[in-house]
Design a protein that fits this description.
Blueprint: E1 11-17, H1 25-35, E2 39-43, E3 58-63, E4 74-79, E5 85-91, E6 96-104, E7 107-115, H2 124-131, E8 138-143, H3 158-170, E9 173-175, E10 195-200, E11 207-211, E12 222-226, E13 243-244, H4 246-256, H5 266-286, E14 288-289, H6 302-321, H7 324-354, H8 362-371, H9 391-405, H10 415-425, H11 440-448, H12 463-467, H13 471-487, E15 496-503, E16 515-520, H14 523-543, H15 559-575, E17 579-585, H16 596-606, H17 609-619, E18 622-628, E19 631-632, E20 636-638, H18 649-656, E21 667-671, E22 674-681, H19 684-704, E23 715-719, E24 730-731, E25 734-735, E26 741-744, E27 747-750, H20 756-777, H21 784-800, H22 803-806, H23 811-829, H24 837-844, H25 849-862, H26 870-873
Helix pairs in contact: 2-3, 4-5, 5-13, 6-7, 10-16, 16-17, 16-18, 20-21, 20-23, 21-23
């Protein structure tokens, strides 16, 4: 550990020109672990977009050279436990820089790593342009190749003069180390100071720079100590970070629970919910078992520590004497240390890999680390174009975006329809039989069925906590639920959701629309919804409210069933030489913009009054807050949409769209908001007209109920073996884009139904996943059965989805997947070339792709005959619906039964 007065409560920033970091990874890792470094600023990383280095416990941000070749570049490694915000990169040919912002003494400070290649001329204006992107207070560290006697260099160069002029003009400081940092191997060049810090910070922050000997390249590192403790991230997603004594928890909570509370009014229910929540939270804190403090120590073997000391001494001797013999001795020790560190790391990894097991969960935890891609904090722009730095600013930007999203499409709805709906909602309700009360046994049964890995809502109460509630608390919870049902009132606390946002793949990170909102609701709220759903579903099924073509979020209905219907329709058209044209529609923000009044209109018609009233209370006065890091936006009202993440949301959405018009000339495939419309005919114009007539009916319905279609993302695809062209389809007077292949419910269906596009896409995905899992699959320290289990659970499900349908494709297509499976078996077993693939499959007792396809389809087909949906029963026929003449030589999915 470094011995100076700053160390114990200070920010430690290491600056180093690595001259290619991949060659010095192990040496830098030792330094990070020994010296408690918080931030590392690296110059000359030699990284590219696909080549970089990670360190455990640190997040990395890179600014590569614009030409994306392995030279120049800068990077920041920051301790993952620190609270910080990444800033946009600045990368030009003359300066590459990446930066983060954190708070020191409650002031935002930008920490940036920079590298300036020596061949470019940099004027004071270019330095000023770069520094102006770093906000008011900053510390920039890097090899700027700027020398000046002002900060201790042997001589000055033009770039040093430019930097000094910028420093005087902008009132910034140059923080240089006391000794040289650049040690050229050539005796004709002299050592000098090239690695410096450029700082503009308040006088209340004191700094100290010092030279270090490790790690080493042709530059030695510099350590900057700032006398301020950096803030850590707050863990806002856990009620307690310690284990809980559940026996003590149950005893304390039972004593706090009062079953004699009055629950006769809505405020009584709100008070009871608040009391129960506070009691559970406080009891968890009181029952926490705080483990003994264990100091994490990093120990190296004695012989490696001795070699490090010898290498440091040899380097000091060479730097003092500059004799070639001393340099050779130093190089020999450096090479020996590098090999020893690599061997030590390999041995440590071997011990770690051999300890992994699927029984204790360590294997899956390690696999998730390999497959998980760190999502950096969002980088957003304010309305004025400036960057949002703080988490609070980002949360507010997301809040404004979502506030505009959770609004009905009033520009589509007609005033007459709004007036009709409001008039009906204000009319008196019909009398109905009071609902049957919930029993404690029913509540307890559903508690045991709660999924254990779901994220908690704002109250941080998890399923594990609910499962350990004592009997007295379950009785109290049942009383609350029955009071809600009796008074038709949903408590306000359970209508509050926390929203986190995740960046969508391949989307720009600086716009709010690129992020997918994930809503987190209180688990006690979702438990009530599960109970309520069991009361409502029989009413919906008995009344046949949902059309048979709607397969989304319904029991015993899957995406494969729906795709199977479409595949049958297309297969029949190919056999009969028909044109099967289809429109695959995309609804814009379908769940988020459901018109509440319109939904209540339909619920009032369909459901008894008590269920209608509780759902009305459930939808009204809902609020949300956006969480970025540990910061929350202000609570904001939700004016539209079914609650995302709620148990009843899928059913409510299905009810809202249940009365869409149909046509006798088209086949409709619905899965929640995914809609496909197919029509076939020997005349391409007639097939298009059937679909177009149906689109006209839907267009009027969408306008009536405020549903907005995304015409640019909807697809028109014609499936046929003939050369004719179907007419372009129009939706809202806009032509739908045409395509030769369409992605529907997770499968790619091409024009000729060869499944080639789907299999190629799966092969690319498999190769990407295999590269991530390769360290485990090729490790000699992991047992063979464990490797096979990894393949079965993490790789095979990628390609086996939809195998019941595409498993009948030509052998030339399915062989792509078969080759991949054979390759994986050969890699994990390290089988020599003379062992055949058939032998590998036999020894591993693993079916081939064709064998697995037959097995899946037979298992799938057995469940079709007695299904409650007649459209699914039709799939059980031995031949294609319509029993067409077998004209083509290809196989269909039913041929897998043979």
């Amino acid at each position: 550990m470094i011995n100076n007065s700053f160390t114990s409560n200070s920010l430690l920033i290491l600056l180093w020109n690595a001259n290619g970091l991949k060659n010095h990874r192990n040496e830098l890792l030792i330094t990070l672990q020994e010296k408690r470094i918080d931030i590392v600023l690296i110059s000359e990383t030699h990284f590219t977009n696909t080549s970089y280095v990670n360190f455990p416990g640190y997040h990395v941000y890179r600014a590569n050279h614009p030409d994306n070749s392995a030279h120049a570049g800068a990077a920041i490694y920051i301790r993952a436990s620190l609270a910080y915000t990444p800033l946009p990169n600045f990368h030009t040919n003359h300066i590459q820089s990446c930066a983060v912002s954190l708070f020191l003494n409650n002031l935002p400070i930008t920490i940036a790593a920079a590298y300036c290649p020596p061949k470019h001329k940099i004027s004071p204006d270019k330095f000023t342009e770069f520094l102006s992107t770093l906000n008011n207070n900053y510390i920039v560290g890097g090899d700027l190749n700027a020398k000046h006697i002002q900060w201790g260099c042997r001589a000055s160069n033009p770039r040093g003069n430019s930097l000094l002029q910028t420093a005087h003009h902008s009132n910034i400081s140059i923080l240089a180390p006391p000794n040289f940092t650049y040690w050229p191997t050539s005796r004709h060049k002299m050592p000098d100071i090239l690695d410096i810090f450029v700082a503009k910070i308040p006088n209340s922050l004191h700094t100290q720079t010092q030279n270090l000997l490790d790690p080493c390249s042709d530059h030695s590192p510099v350590l900057l100590s700032v006398d301020c403790q950096p803030p850590d991230k707050l863990n806002s997603s856990m009620l307690s970070q310690y284990r809980t004594d559940w026996e003590k928890f149950g005893h304390i909570l039972s004593e706090k629970t009062d079953l004699k509370l009055c629950l006769k009014t809505a405020p009584d229910i709100d008070d009871a919910v608040n009391l129960l929540t506070n009691n559970i939270q406080s009891t968890v804190w009181e029952s926490a078992i705080q483990p003994p403090l264990r100091k994490a120590e990093f120990n190296l073997p004695i012989h490696i520590r001795t070699l490090i000391s010898l290498k440091r001494r040899a380097r000091a001797i060479w730097q003092h004497s500059r004799y070639p013999s001393d340099k050779r001795h130093y190089n020999a020790l450096t090479l020996k240390l590098k090999r020893l560190l690599a061997s030590h790391r390999s041995e440590a990894y071997a011990n770690y890999a051999s300890s992994l097991s699927h029984n204790d969960g360590s294997l899956w935890k390690a696999s998730r680390k390999l497959l998980h891609i760190h999502n950096p904090p969002p980088t957003l722009r304010n309305d004025d174009g400036t960057w949002a730095v703080s988490d609070q600013d980002k949360a507010n930007i997301f809040m404004k975006h979502l506030e505009n999203t959770f609004q009905p499409h009033y520009n589509i709805l007609s005033p007459s329809k709004i007036q009709e709906v409001e008039s009906f909602l204000n009319s008196p309700l019909q009398m109905s039989v009071p609902p049957r009360a919930f029993s404690p046994g029913e509540v307890y049964f559903n508690i045991k069925k709660l999924p254990g890995k779901k994220s908690p809502g704002f109250d941080l109460i998890t399923a594990e906590v609910i499962r350990n509630l004592p009997k007295k608390s379950i009785l109290f919870l049942t009383q609350i639920y029955n009071a809600m049902l009796r008074l038709s009132y949903f408590p306000i606390l359970w209508k509050y959701s926390t929203i986190i946002l995740i960046l969508k793949p391949k989307k720009p990170p600086d716009t709010p629309t690129s992020y997918r909102p994930i809503s987190l609701l209180p688990i006690l709220s979702k438990l009530f919804e599960k109970l309520l759903l069991k009361r409502i579903l029989p009413i919906v099924d008995t009344a046949k409210i949902l059309p048979n073509s709607q397969f989304g979020f319904r029991n015993s209905h899957s995406t494969i069933h729906q795709v199977h219907r479409l595949v049958d329709k297309i297969s029949y058209a190919l056999e009969e030489k028909l044109y099967c044209t289809g429109a695959f529609l995309d609804v814009s923000q379908a769940f988020d913009r459901v018109w509440h009044a319109g939904l209540l209109y339909k619920l009032k018609i369909l459901l008894p009054s008590h269920y209608y009233l509780i759902l009305k209370s459930y939808l009204e006065d809902r609020h949300f807050s956006v969480r970025v890091g540990s910061t929350f936006s202000v609570p904001t009202l939700i004016n539209a949409g079914v609650p995302q993440g709620a148990v009843t949301a899928p059913l409510l959405f299905n009810i809202y769209i249940s009365d869409q018009p149909s046509s006798i000339h088209t086949l409709v495939g619905d899965f929640a908001d995914d809609k496909a419309i197919l029509a076939s005919s020997s005349d391409p114009h007639l097939a298009s007209s059937y679909v177009q007539d149906h689109l006209h009916l839907l267009q009027a319905w969408y306008k009536e109920w405020g549903v907005k279609m995304n015409e640019s993302k909807s697809i028109h695809c014609t499936f046929t073996l003939r050369q004719g062209v179907c007419q372009t389809l129009l939706l809202n007077n806009q032509p739908l884009p045409t395509a030769q292949c369409v992605h529907y419910l997770g499968v790619n269906i091409d024009r000729r139904l060869t499944w080639s596009a789907h299999i190629k896409n799966k092969t690319r995905t498999l190769n990407d996943r295999f590269r991530l899992l390769r360290p485990f699959l090729t490790s000699k320290n992991i047992k063979l059965p464990t490797k096979l289990l990894l393949y079965k659970l993490l790789l095979r499900p990628i390609w086996s989805y939809g195998l019941q349908l595409w498993g009948s494709a030509k052998v030339s297509n399915t062989n792509r997947i078969q080759r991949f499976q054979s390759k994986v078996l050969r890699v994990i077993s390290k089988a020599p070339f003379y062992v055949s693939n058939n032998t590998l499959h036999t020894d591993f007792n693993l079916p081939t792709v064709t064998e697995l396809a037959k097995l899946h389809y037979k298992r799938f087909n057995k469940k079709l005959t007695h299904h409650s949906n007649p459209l699914i029963v039709q799939l059980s026929s031995a031949t294609l619906p319509g029993n067409p003449h077998k004209r083509l030589k290809r196989q269909w999915c039913r041929d897998l039964l043979i």
